[in-house]
Amino acid sequence: MTPNLGILDRTLRIAAGAALIVLATLGKIGLWGYVGVIPFVTGIFRFCPAYRLFGFSSCPLPSGKH
Asked: What's the farthest any 2 CA atoms get from each other in the chain?
C-alpha cells in the first residue's frame, strides 16, 4: 500500500477519529461514534482505500518528480 494521505489529512483523521471513539466510549454520543475507527485507522496507516479508488492523493510529490 502506497501512502496517499498527507500530514494535515492524516492529523485531522486521527484527531477526529479518536474524538468520536472517546465520545462514544463515554456515552456522550450513540454507538455511531465508533465509526471513528475508520478515519483513525486510515490516518495511522497513511492509506485511504477510497482515495485510491478515485485516484486521489493528498501526499506531496516526492522531490525530483513533477
From this structure: 49
On the 0-12 / 13-18 / 19+ scale of CB atoms within 10 A, 7 is: exposed
Structural domain span for residue 35: 7-54
Q: What is the pTM of this model?
A: 0.85
The total number of structural domains that make up the chain: 1
Q: What is the pLDDT of residues 5-48, one digit of tens each?
A: 999 999 999 999 999 999 999 999 999 999 999 999 999 999 99
Domain presence at residue 39: yes
Residue showing cell 474524538: 19
Q: Is 27 part of any domain?
A: yes
| Buried b or exposed e, range 18-34, using 16+ CB within 10 angstroms | eebbeebeeeeeeeebe
